[in-house]
């Protein structure tokens, strides 16, 4: 059994509660160092990102598509729709000899208020060897739809696990 929103974890100094994030989501710039490894290869190392913060969700980091090593991203089939950000396209991610199908997404024409996501890509941490934020290894968000990045900086409970869809 998973905690309910009523069992909100109280943030300690230096932490954020995902229950204090807004709905609709907020996009904010971040200078944290984001490093992603797949197939034993570092495919991304950047301090240029934006975080999307939405009630009950761990932050999702969007990084410049151009920051990935050459050949790391290829178009994948499928799309999805976010009521706030618009239509998302998917990308497969390659590092070393591994390929993670549809492990990244982007908004080619993000909705009003989310224009800063244009030209940026988000990744599912569970599909990578590792993702780090300022040197801390990210824990993936439960479930198979959301791509939140959990670090010691954020507390929940987090949406995504079975039984949390209605949050």
From TrEMBL:
Pfam family, one: NTP_transf_9
Protein name: DUF427 domain-containing protein
Positions of region (Disordered): 1-24
InterPro entries: DUF427, DUF427_sf
Lineage: Bacteria, Bacillati, Actinomycetota, Actinomycetes, Micrococcales
Annotated organism of origin: Subtercola boreus
Domain DUF427: 35-125
């Amino acid at each position: 059994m998973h905690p309910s929103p009523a069992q909100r974890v109280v943030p300690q100094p230096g932490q954020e509660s995902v229950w204090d994030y807004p709905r609709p989501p907020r996009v904010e710039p971040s200078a944290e160092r984001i490093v992603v490894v797949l197939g034993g290869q570092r495919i991304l190392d950047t301090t240029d990102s934006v975080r999307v913060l939405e009630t009950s969700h761990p932050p999702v980091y969007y990084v410049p598509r151009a920051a990935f090593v050459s050949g790391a991203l290829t178009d994948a089939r499928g799309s999805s729709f976010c009521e706030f950000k618009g239509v998302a396209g998917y990308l497969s991610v390659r590092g070393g000899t591994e390929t993670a199908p549809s492990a990244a997404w982007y908004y080619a024409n993000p909705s009003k208020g989310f224009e800063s996501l244009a030209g940026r890509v988000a990744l599912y941490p569970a599909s990578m060897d590792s993702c780090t934020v300022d040197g801390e290894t990210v824990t993936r968000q439960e479930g198979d739809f959301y791509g939140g990045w959990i670090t010691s900086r954020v507390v929940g409970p987090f949406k995504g696990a079975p039984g949390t869809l209605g949050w």
